[in-house]
Amino acid sequence: MESKLGYKVDASNYPYESVKRFYLNLRLVPDGMYERTVEELDAYAPKNPRADETVPPIGGIETISYGGSTIRLTHRSHIVYGFIVDIHYEFGVDLPLLLTENEVIQIMSVARLQRNPRSSHVSSFFSKLPRELRDRIYSFVLPRQSWSMGEHLFTVPELFLVESIGDLSGFYFPLSTPSISATDLGILSVSQQMREEALPLALRRTSFQLDDIDDLIKLLLNIGQIGRENIESLEFGWYSTAEMDFTWDEAPGKVGPEDIDPTKVTSGGTEFKDLFLTLPVIHVETCLQLLKQCARLTDLRLHFERDLINIISLDAFKANVGIQGLSSIRGLRSVEIRSLENHPLEQEGVVRWLKEQLESPVLE
């Protein structure tokens, strides 16, 4: 390990912090030195030649601000995960991260792009048109599309998500997908003025499809204030892969997916599928705080594990803190609740109750 990493593995590399930090995938940073070192080894990459001119030196601090939100980056040490990043959003969300040099370079690159915005030149003819007419032109040009996190992670470098963290406004968030090319959204690249005017409509015409609440948090953080204020359609599963992975690693007597016989019930140990039979905990509060910033949200499709919905009582469902927060969101136009296999669940009592709550009028 030490020969590849290029530094001695020592407890002093991982000073104690009272705050629990997360990696970029929202997985909890482990406490143990061995587990931390394994993560370092998995994330190891040769020193980036751009580092010296892009990131602060060891001990240095860089702050990015937008409105009342801030990102504070501290270069703590020379190890792979040597940067602590504290993100504070003005509406109350705090996200403490532990990042690598390459991840911080991506953040800083976009932050500096904002300080040097693209040309705002627009043809004098178009800019003289009334704003109402310009908006009508945007509505004819911009397509309706579906945006999937999975599509982006498969076709572009995974780091594209962290790039957007440096853009608290969401102005540079990439809306193009493999099915809707950048050419179809070309009007967003003509000029800064056109992007400012057309981006809100483009976001309203996009249906965002995500796997779980981890992906939802990543999206709603990275899409920025502009995105959260304009997003209208969301789909995601009410579970956390990061939480299940962490729980799985900590589980005694665990039985791997390859050992599971779905026709049998085990008398001891923890099966991975059992993790789907509990409601998420770790990231729920952050998820709900971000959802409540989506003032224009009208269409929501949620996915739950069918077996969980079949076994949980309505009283237990209502008593769950996450479900209490979710059900407090009101005034949605359309709510669908389906299984992870995308089969309808509306016949279940707990699902009918949740759907009624979400579609009920906003409380004054």
Short key terms for the protein model shown above:
17 helices; alpha/beta; four-stranded antiparallel beta sheet; five-stranded parallel beta sheet; flat; 364 residues
Would you count the extended β strands for me? Answer: 11
* Contiguous helical run count: 17
Helix content: 25-40%
Q: How many strands, what sense, and barrel or not for the largest sheet?
A: 5 strands, parallel
Please report which band the strand proportion falls in: under 5%, 5-15%, 15-25%, 25-35%, 35-45% or over 45%: 5-15%
Radius of gyration, whole Å: 22 Å
Written account of the structure:
By secondary structure, the protein is of the alpha/beta class. The chain has 17 helices and eleven strands. It has helices at 2-5, 33-43, 51-54, 101-115, 124-128, 131-141, 149-155, 160-165, 192-204, 213-222, 224-230, 241-250, 284-291, 306-311, 314-319, 321-327, 349-359; strands at residues 61-66, 69-75, 83-88, 94-99, 145-148, 206-209, 233-237, 254-255, 270-271, 299-304, 334-339. The chain is flat and about 60 Å long.
Question: Could you provide a short overview of the structure?
Answer:
By secondary structure, the chain is an alpha/beta fold.
Question: What topology emerges from the helices and strands here?
Answer:
Layout: H1 2-5, H2 33-43, H3 51-54, E1 61-66, E2 69-75, E3 83-88, E4 94-99, H4 101-115, H5 124-128, H6 131-141, E5 145-148, H7 149-155, H8 160-165, H9 192-204, E6 206-209, H10 213-222, H11 224-230, E7 233-237, H12 241-250, E8 254-255, E9 270-271, H13 284-291, E10 299-304, H14 306-311, H15 314-319, H16 321-327, E11 334-339, H17 349-359
Parallel strand pairs: 5-6, 6-7, 7-10, 8-9, 10-11
Antiparallel strand pairs: 1-2, 2-3, 3-4
